[in-house]
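ok trying this again, last paste got cut off
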Amino acid sequence: MLHLNIFLSTLAVVSSFTHQPPTSTILCRSSALPSYRQNLSTLHAAKRRGGAMARRKNQSIQSEDDITSSDDSSSDNKGFGQMTEDDDSTISKSDSIYSMPPLYDLAFGYRNYDEEVDFLLDAHDKYAKHSSTKEPLRILELAAGPARHSLSALSEHLSSEVDSVVALDRSQEMVDYGVENADYELGVPGGRRDDFVYVNGDMRSVGDSTNTSFDTAWLLLGSASHLLTNNDVIACLSSVNSVLKSGGTVVIELPHPRETFSMGECTRNGWTVPLVEDDMDGDGEEKEYGELNIVWGEEGDDFDPVLQIRHFTVGLELTVNNIEDIPKDEATSPLFLQMSKEGKTKVKEIVPMRLFTLQEIDALARCAGFELIAKYGALAEDVSIEDEDGAFRMVCVLT
């Protein structure tokens, strides 16, 4: 099925509690495509870069009633599995939020994937226990979503540096979407497209989905927060260890622990993605045709300080200014076709996510046979995890 396709490039990276950039800094464009896909309705994240990264809370972008739930009554049962009395192991991931890959992709289009991949490759080069001969890397990306880091590694780095990438996600919708992204970004078979494989699988049992051995593994965008128990984390890391080459590295990116201990009470976090057309108006100004509003955490979200689990309210709402501008044909994205007569597509979910400390990651890594060898405050070499102004993430390098 054809879908809304997102083309991403360089943006400022500024975050608060989980993934968020500063409000209203993302610009997305409609864009023409090569002939074989030019009938798709597309969005394009414009090139925009800012200064130093910083931690900051974002202001509320809409009232509580602006994003309505797709199924509030069943939201606690969403995810990879449910926690039962007999099983303390579960991964939480919303069915609805993650089954709308184009919106998720667009919401996090502020990430500078190329620079982040440069950091990830440099970290491996710095901390891996290399053999005498350095060979091209085989990379594993867990909970890869739209697979933007995977695709950047292949499209921006020669085969002499990056041999191949396997992406893994449990959402089949994300897998399908990532494969279409790869088809577009990496070209036809016979080139770099042959070096990318996307598998549907559970990050607690990677060996069930691939028999490849890897040099480095990435678990980014806070996806480890979906591992709600120690059993889940150890199972995931042990599984990765079983497919990692001797001396390989693992990089995990999570929210900074400072946010956990300074939270006090749950607050609202949100940002807005304006959508603009490529063509300018008569005055040479960009023409906005809609926007995507994102809420990632709401006032009153339940936080369990014993289990360190926050039940995040996550809402995505795509709005177009004039519903009549959307073509009604078989190539049009279902996200547009299912819009209300007011020109809106929206979903809201409650997503349980665990908050981690550095010492927890250290201890859990040891249980799985790893050692925490380095930590950063962002996916950037020059941001210390102890930097009160610059550190907004907890990036752990394991060997």
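PB: full thing came through this time. The first strand starts at residue 5 and ends at 7.
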